[in-house]
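Reopening: structure tokens for the zinc ion complex, inputs below.
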Amino acid sequence: MEERINRFVYDVPTKIYFGEGQIEQLAGIIGEYGSRVLLVYGGGSIKRSGIYDKVMELLRNEQIDVWELSGVEPNPRLATVCRGVEICREHGIEVVLPIGGGSTIDCAKGVAAGFYHQGSPWDLVEDSSLIQQALPIVAVLTLAATGSEMDGDAVISNPDTCDKMEMNSKLLYPRASILDPAYTYSVPSYQTACGTADIMSHVMEIYLAGKGGNEVQDRFMEGLLSTCVKYGPIACREPENYEARANLMWASSWAINGFISCGVNSCWPLHAMEHQLSAYYDVTHGHGLAVLIPVWMEYVLNDETVERFALYGTKVFGIPDTKDSYEIAGLAIQKTREVFLEMGLSLTMKDLGIATDEFYEDMAIKAADGLEDGVVPLTKEDVIRIYRKAETSS
Ligand code: NZQ
Ligand code: ZN
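Re-run output (same inputs, fresh job):
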């Protein structure tokens, strides 16, 4: 049965500066919010690529003062967020400027909100309603993946408790994001593949939960998925292919900026299960998703979901719709696997560095919390079965 589009308010406050050379706008954008900046970055890719030097020159020329929070980890940690909050308080920071991938931008969001909170920033992860104020964020994206450049989410890891959870607030949308596809030329093939899998998963979480009746977003999502299937492998093979990088970058933002999910209910089962892999084993988010996606698809394929999966197969992979729906769905799952493999992602738990099941029980308890409302409800036992199937699936 088709679903009605539920009520929604669509309001994305992030201004996007897209294309080569847009970095020249940076000082002007920052100047709208202040002149004391916290530059947030990761392990040094922005220094190797030259973005760091360019940004420092641009900001210096406009008398903008810069303090730095460097070394943000992939799967950013609470301790790093806390370090950033301290720097902001000590130096009266007015604007937070993350330059990097999702981890760097998420960490910056944690800092921006943590600045105004008297307790631990982890309180904000546990209860986002506590976020009443945040420093303005201006982001420069260097990796097409998470969509953090145009959403209000920040996923933070707490290694002490093996928790990886998100805070979410309207106040955490970057005020502006600079998206220069050439900045992603230096992204290694592995991270490009993981990023593409992540973008695809963001769309699948919504698309495969849908039941029709929402043509605008359905056709748009098929376009996003086709874009990833086409350009992900190209970007892995040809890192400096502007067309591929640009399409992936723009797809990254639109996959999770709130548009495709307008009026759709989804409990995001893939992310719920993957975040536990990252929390317990520190795996790369997109790789964890690539391992889980085909296994989960097979697990939830039933009479309720088969038509949706078949639609995915015909629209995204061009499988003729004259075949039986289950056959189309099966082929679609196989083709999804092949895209990941073509990009060089191997698809078992072992390939993620997970060689033991000792934490499955704990992980599944956390993951299954909220999955009873999915299009196919999943229990703790279901999640454990999916993890087990992912041990051998390839
Ligand atoms: O740290 P540096 O040196 O910058 O290197 C990074 C890092 O090692 C490197 N990299 C980034 N841009 C590069 C580059 N290397 C060369 N050239 C460049 N231009 O790539 C590595 C991974 O970076 P990271 O930021 O961790 O990747 P990603 O963008 O995939 O972010 C992953 C994090 O975002 C969260 C994930 O859970 C994970 O913690 N997510 C955030 C979401 C959100 N805010 O909405 C939604 C997502 O579903 C996701 O959960
Ligand atoms: Zn994701």
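Residues 224 and 251 are 6 Å apart (CA to CA). The beta strands are 15-18, 36-40, 65-69, 95-100, 138-141, 153-158, 163-168, 176-179. Marking as resolved unless the reporter disagrees.
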